[in-house]
Amino acid sequence: MNVKSSHGSLEELCDHIRALPRHQLWRWGQAGDLPGDGKRIDAQALQLIADANRWRRGFGFTHYDPALKANARAIAAANAGGFTLNRSADNVVEADKLVALGIAPVVLVLPKGTTKHFTTPAGNHVSVCPATVRDDVTCARCGICQNKDRKAIMGFPAHGSGAAKAHVISLTGLTKSLTKSRRTTPFDDGSVETAKRKTA
């Protein structure tokens, strides 16, 4: 389920999250980022969202810079509290740096059409999002982005009108890194989706 901040106040949004069934998989925001001013996360608002998520399986993505210690603390606290925040990277060099920080799981924008898993210059495994390469998988059925302890970087091939721009962003800094490492790679957020955890 995509929970949007268009529900009114933060309190109303948190009430909406708390009303979700236990173990409900849901995604924060189809587009946009966390509450904040664009540079610094509103840690208090994020904590309220994380608290509302208790017993639920919420996850989201952020481009907020973890080099700001306040952002790093807010992201780490949300993840520790069960609200999984994935730190978004625009290229493999940035993804490797984010993995090295150890604050949050990492996701990566890949060039359009990428379908194969690969290893980054720093040796991190990148798994291509299963929902982008298999017709029988959806975010609602997968849930891997909600797993804060996963080792792999999740890669999302660019699609739609931003694919050309994403291809350029993904390749930034890659050629130089690959030349040094001699590694090979494949390089030459509206709707509501829900899934309840199935119990045996």
UniProtKB/TrEMBL annotation:
DUF7227 domain ranges (all copies): 8-169
Superkingdom of the organism of origin: Bacteria
A Pfam family hit: DUF7227
Location of the region described as Disordered in the Swiss-Prot/TrEMBL record: 180-200
Protein's UniProt name: DUF7227 domain-containing protein
Organism: Aquabacterium commune
Lineage of the organism: Bacteria, Pseudomonadati, Pseudomonadota, Betaproteobacteria, Burkholderiales
